[in-house]
């Protein structure tokens, strides 16, 4: 700093006396030093604010992942509840049919007993009429044997029907309990979902506050450095973009490396399937993300992919993990437009929490998160996908 002051003094000494006196606005060495200290302090504050904002954004992104996990757990619980209730309804229908069969068997047995008492037979036993009308001892023995055989067969049918009715009743009760448990699970994950939404909303509020604080500090820094807020913001954005580009390239290389060693069992498309799915997804661009949304005006991630492939004639459940289970896995190098791309929290298919539709050229269409809309994004925006599959 002494050298700068000395240089300034030498420079002033070289100027004509009149010029030096005329330039009364020339800053003193102390003023220059103070300005430099102010700029340095503002720069440090801006950098600290940038770090705090980045940390808050990272926290929000982590909450986004947890929120999507909550959404998919909710979707899975709803799907399982629907399946359990369908099984319970079928079990009740089976129980009712079995009970009706048992009642019919008991009615048949009662009718046979009445026929024996009266000495005649029911229409269904008309084939035994000749035997039952014979008078001699041998015929009577045959008659008794025939009646006994019919009685035993009727009793067997009745017993079987009663057992089937009891089994069906037990199955119905078990299915009803399962459906009740599924409904309770749905309520539980819905509550967890709501709690996660509250946390995410609070975190987004904190991100907005830190972003505003950072903008103020950048403005102060720009003033201290005699530059513009726009220039400072552009520089910060350029640094962020460069980091994102580096991360995307690393993710792409990782995907290509995995493709070299991954088995590929991809099946060919039927004509028009993929294009119909992609066209439908494109038509939803700009529609808001809503948890559990499956169209026509709002979507979550698996709701969008479900409806897109439904338009292509393929039925998928509203549950990302099941969408992967019902599709053919493939590698990144074999991706075609329309294929599905999945992310998992722990790298297992069971913990898939996000799904999107591949467009080609490392682009995808996704319904990303609460507060956002269906949009086109980089395939690598969330890091390397865990799974790729073709419905």
Automatic annotation (TrEMBL):
<keyword id="KW-0788">Thiol protease</keyword>
<keyword id="KW-0378">Hydrolase</keyword>
<feature type="coiled-coil region">
    <location>
        <begin position="193"/>
        <end position="227"/>
    </location>
</feature>
<keyword id="KW-0175">Coiled coil</keyword>
<protein>
    <submittedName>
        <fullName>C40 family peptidase</fullName>
    </submittedName>
</protein>
<keyword id="KW-0732">Signal</keyword>
<dbReference type="InterPro" id="IPR051794">
    <property type="entry name" value="PG_Endopeptidase_C40"/>
</dbReference>
<comment type="similarity">
    <text>Belongs to the peptidase C40 family.</text>
</comment>
<feature type="signal peptide">
    <location>
        <begin position="1"/>
        <end position="22"/>
    </location>
</feature>
<feature type="domain" description="NlpC/P60">
    <location>
        <begin position="271"/>
        <end position="391"/>
    </location>
</feature>
<dbReference type="Pfam" id="PF00877">
    <property type="entry name" value="NLPC_P60"/>
</dbReference>
<dbReference type="InterPro" id="IPR038765">
    <property type="entry name" value="Papain-like_cys_pep_sf"/>
</dbReference>
<dbReference type="InterPro" id="IPR000064">
    <property type="entry name" value="NLP_P60_dom"/>
</dbReference>
<keyword id="KW-0645">Protease</keyword>
